Amino acid sequence: MSGRFAASTKVAIAGYAHSQVERHAARPLGALAVDTARRAIADAGLEPRDVDGVVAASLFPSAGAHAVEDGISTVTAGWMAQHLGTAPRYVAGFQGIGQVSGALTLAVNAVASGAADHVLFYRALHNPRGSYHGNPMREVAGPQQWTAPAGYFGPLAMIALPYNEYLRRYGATREAMAAVLVEARKNGARIPWSYWHGKPLTEKEYLAAPTLADPICRYDCDIPVDGVAAFVVTSAERARDLPHKPVYVAGYASSPPPAARLPLHWTLDDIMSGGAETARRLWESAGIGPDEVDLPQMYDGFSPFVWFWLEALGFCPVGEAHRFVQDGRIDSDRPGALPVLSGGGALGNGRMHGIPQMLECYLQLAGRAGERQRPKATVGVACQSSPHYGGAVVYAAESF
């Protein structure tokens, strides 16, 4: 990517729908996804026949041995296109770095290029029965032979390593991280469809939680859930004729390919150097900088990602995020604070990947956040995954 995104603010989100977020839904994931998709289309003032594009982020994110079955544990774009009751001319699934942000760019580019007029974009997450990241292996070959037998397997070990590096390098503490969890859960508790609706978290409860992979505790992880969110993406021109205020896509960036390491070996230096390049791409694509963003939504599948993204995107200096999040500086209820988790994030909603960040940008910039509406939300950023292995999208309330 070089220079500002050519279709900046020429493509918009026109409507959305979100299912209830539950540990285990009573209905199959495919049925839940189709229902949510149809409600999103109706919310945009359209009929299923108007939708001529379907885009999905369909990765099933378990490190265990669960079966991947379309319509049950995942919902691909092809499956949705078959069951939506329409005949889209553009159907695509994302397989690169950064599922939600990357898949959304497929929808944006399809509209910008004329490949489709109205694109359904969705993410469907499934929580299988049994241990989500259990390791069933009895023997292992290839690169994992050097890590899995020693217990270095799955995302908990992956994030524990750079988090521990950060704590030791910068003198940070778990007490400082408590501010992130309390803020995420406070905001998630306000959202009707959230798994944590009505269930805020105190600092004392956070610090007393059992350790899973030192220094990661239970509440540092987003909880696996069943849930679906869907959006309708169309041109800015068409969106202006639809019922809701458009929210424009101003720019986006995906992370560069990460350094070659052993499986799940994410070092802090890799995260931050890759994140710096992601940020450079993002601000260049949107033609703005972090000082112009008033609604930054940091990704928080694991709590340390909030610190990493804050520093990578330039909202605070490297090594200072653990101080920046304290003393109310990210409190969404405090005037002048930076509302980095005003939508609750994954820690406050459940494991919906980057959907809570994207949805908060849409709701606030469209003026549809209800009692949570912020008075002056104009430019938002939604991050997903790690700064070196994910992506981010800039949203705007107005064209610029």
Descriptive account of the structure:
The protein is an alpha/beta fold and 400 residues long. The chain has a single domain (11-129, 223-396), classed as Peroxisomal Thiolase, Chain A, domain 1 (3-Layer(aba) Sandwich), CATH 3.40.47. Helix content is 32%, strand content 16%. The chain has twelve helices and eleven strands. It has helices at 29-43, 77-83, 99-113, 154-170, 174-188, 203-208, 236-239, 268-286, 304-312, 321-324, 345-349, 355-365; strands at residues 11-18, 53-56, 90-93, 118-125, 211-213, 216-217, 227-235, 247-254, 295-297, 379-386, 389-396. The strands form two sheets. The protein has a nine-stranded mixed sheet, with helices on both faces. Strands 5-6 form a two-stranded antiparallel sheet. Strand 10 (379-386) and strand 11 form a beta hairpin. Helix 8 (268-286) packs across helix 9. It is globular. The two termini are 19 Å apart. The model has no long low-confidence stretch (mean pLDDT 95). Keywords: Acyltransferase, Transferase. Its EC number is 2.3.1.-. InterPro entries: Thiolase (IPR002155), Thiolase-like (IPR016039), Thiolase_C_2 (IPR055140). GO terms for molecular function: acyltransferase activity. It is an enzyme of class 2 (transferase).
- CATH fold-level assignment: Peroxisomal Thiolase, Chain A, domain 1
Which homologous superfamily in CATH is the superfamily?
Answer: Thiolase/Chalcone synthase
* Global Rg: 20 Å
CATH architecture: 3-Layer(aba) Sandwich
The structure class reads alpha/beta
The termini sit apart by 19 Å
Number of domains: 1
CATH class: Alpha Beta
Number of strands: 11
Strand order of the largest sheet: 3-2-4-7-1-8-11-10-9
Q: What oligomeric assembly is this protein in? A: single chain
Low-confidence stretches: none
**SSE pattern, N- to C-terminal:** EHEHEHEHHHEEEHEHEHHHHEE
Number of helices: 12
Shape: globular
- Give the DSSP E fraction (strand runs of 2 or more residues): 15-25%
GO molecular function: acyltransferase activity
InterPro entries: Thiolase, Thiolase-like, Thiolase_C_2
Protein name: Thiolase family protein
Pfam family, one: Thiolase_C_1
